[in-house]
Write a structure and sequence with these properties.
CATH architecture of the largest domain: 3-Layer(aba) Sandwich
Helix content: 40-55%
Distance between the termini: 55 Å
Strand order of the largest sheet: 3-2-1-4-5-6
Radius of gyration: 20 Å
CATH topology of the largest domain: Rossmann fold
Number of strands: 9
Keywords: NAD, Oxidoreductase
CATH superfamily of the largest domain: NAD(P)-binding Rossmann-like Domain
GO molecular function, one term: oxidoreductase activity
Structural class: alpha/beta
Pfam families: NAD_binding_11 (PF14833), NAD_binding_2 (PF03446)
Organism: Amycolatopsis thailandensis
Family: Belongs to the HIBADH-related family.
Largest sheet: 6 strands, parallel
Number of domains: 2
């Protein structure tokens, strides 16, 4: 493969996406607002662009992997891809997807709604799950890209303009928030009651309440290792996106609201850039 793909955003997810696409044989051009992050990819065969417009010039496919809807819209406007370009949107943007769809329509871009499930390690291993909605005509082009960055693609809609994939991502994030705080609060209570937290983990391990996520986040807390797979601040942002969408749908999300507040407290205590498992610290006043 020699097809050119532009990647806008080379953070925790974007950098391995660009790297894995390059390994799969695509000609990758990458741009990031903080240039040093993109420059780190040069050794992986990725061409680093000085601007978003330079990255997308002549590229039939543009991928956005940025923090939120406003940053995605700012980047794609600056890039100004040509009409007919396939725009693959991997970021978690919530209901802001509607504004992105409107911009794609204005500019004649083919919009593929494709947020990913997974954090740093799955991204690095090319094991993301791609939640995708897009027209049949674009699928043949983008499926090889998804195969390079993910272990599975779940097509949930035949029109990227439906926003179906972005809304599914909000549902999944609701579950992630519940799991994260469930582990954190249980371990915080163990500390408060003088219970050996390893006994809690031992009881759960191998039983019906066990899962890989529980093992990863409980291990992070017990080891006091908050190397970022997905940050507290980004988790708080995702919780806000869930709440905004739920409010418009008339659905109460009491647990997510409490979870958002916990992430915010952990961030205020200085843990915003750490892994979302550091929401654990929201349980303590010290």
């Amino acid at each position: 493969m020699t097809e050119t793909v532009a990647v806008l955003g080379t953070g925790i997810i974007g950098a391995p996406v660009a790297r894995n696409l390059s390994k799969a044989g695509f000609a990758v051009r990458a741009w990031n607002r903080t240039g040093a992050k993109a420059e780190a990819l040069a050794g992986d065969g990725v061409q680093v662009a000085a601007s978003a417009a330079e990255a997308v010039e002549g590229a039939p496919v543009v991928i956005t992997v940025l923090t939120d809807g406003p940053s995605v819209l700012e980047a794609i406007r600056a890039a100004a891809p040509a009409a007919g370009t396939i725009w693959v949107q991997l970021s978690t943007v919530g209901d802001a997807v509607d504004e992105l769809i409107a911009y794609a329509d204005e500019q004649g871009l083919v919009f593929v709604d494709a947020p990913v499930q997974g954090t740093r390690q799955p991204a690095e291993q090319g094991q993301l799950i791609v939640l995708a909605a897009g027209a049949a005509g674009a699928r043949e082009t983008v499926q090889p890209l998804f195969d390079a960055i993910g272990k599975r693609t779940l097509w949930v809609g035949e029109d990227g303009r439906s926003g179906a994939a972005s809304r599914l991502k909000l549902v999944l994030n609701t579950w992630v928030i519940a799991l994260t705080h469930g582990v954190g609060e249980a371990l915080a209570l163990a500390e408060g009651l003088g219970v050996d937290p390893k006994h809690f983990v031992d009881v759960v391990t191998g039983g019906p309440m066990d899962n890989g996520y529980f093992q990863a986040k409980s291990a992070a807390i017990l080891k006091n290792d908050y190397t970022t797979a997905f940050s507290v601040d980004n988790a708080e942002k995702d919780a806000r996106l869930v709440l905004e969408a739920a409010a418009r749908a008339g659905v109460r999300m009491d647990a997510v609201e409490a979870g958002r507040a916990r992430f915010a407290r952990a961030s205020e205590a200085g843990h915003g850039d750490e892994d979302m498992a550091a929401g654990y610290f929201a349980s303590f006043d010290k």
